[in-house]
Amino acid sequence: MSVKLYVGNLPFSVTDASLKSNFSEFGRVSSAKVMMDRETGRAKGFGFVEMASAEEAQAAITGLNGVSVDGRAIVVNLARPREEGAGSGGYSASGYGAKRTDVGYGNGGFGGGRY
C-alpha cells in the first residue's frame, strides 16, 4: 500500500526529478510531483511524494522534515486527503455553496432578510 507525503516550503529550484531522488534514499518512490502555477509556470513551493510503504514513508518524514534545502527548511508529513466541497462556496452539482439561513425572502421585515 502506497503512502502519500506532503512536502512544503520547497525552494522554487526543486524539480520532480530532484524531489524523487532525495526521497529515494529512504525507499521506493512511486511518484514525485512539484505543484506548478498554471499562469506563471513557476513552482508553488510544495509537492507530493508517494512512497511504496508506510515504513519507508515514516523513514522519509524522520529523515527529511526540517532539513535545509537551498536555505529553506522543508516540511515533510503525511498528506491529508482532499475534502469534498472544500472551496470558496462556488457552484457545484448540489447548487450554490455557502448557504445562509439568515438572509433571504421572508426572514424579517419588508424586502427580505436581514444582513
Automatic annotation (TrEMBL):
InterPro entries: Nucleotide-bd_a/b_plait_sf, RBD_domain_sf, RRM2_NsCP33-like, RRM_dom, SLIRP/GR-RBP-like
The keyword Repeat is annotated on this UniProt entry: yes
GO-annotated biological processes: negative regulation of gene expression; positive regulation of signal transduction
Domain RRM intervals: 3-81
GO CC terms: cytoplasm
One of the record's GO molecular function terms: mRNA binding
Keywords from the named record: Repeat, RNA-binding
Pfam families with a match to the protein in the record: RRM_1 (PF00076)
PROSITE patterns according to UniProt: RRM (PS50102)
Protein name as it appears in the record: RNA-binding protein
Organism whose genome encodes this protein: Variovorax guangxiensis
